[in-house]
Amino acid sequence: MPGKKVSFGRKPSGVEKTVDVEEWVTNREALVEAEQPPSSAEAAKPEKIKRLTLDIPESLHKAIKLKATNEGVTMVELLRELLEEHYGSKS
After folding, report:
1. Which residue has the higher pLDDT, 52 or 43?
2. Cα–Cα distance list, 23 to 29, 32, 41, 46 (Å)
3. How far apart are CA 70 and CA 38, in angstroms?
4. Is-contact 27 41, C-beta < 8 A?
5. How far, in Å, CA of 89 to CA of 36, rounded?
6. Which residue has the higher pLDDT, 26 or 66?
7. What are all long-range contacts of 26-31, with beta carbons under 8 Å and residues at least 24 apart?
């Protein structure tokens, strides 16, 4: 009994967009924003994101992680909200 033949069609041309890895690492926020259609609320250009690295005791890290887990958010979301409340602009 011969094997069944399956036709796969042609590979789409020009559909996939290639992204330079170094460009993505440097400008990933801008590239993600560019792929999404802007809403009317996002008329202004989004603020550039900067990375903050700090060393904290393991016990504090565990406490933050536990609180974030209990609230169902990531540690980043929890800490950004906390920093925004304390240091953000009071418009």
Report:
1. 52
2. 11, 12, 27, 18
3. 33
4. no
5. 27
6. 66
7. none
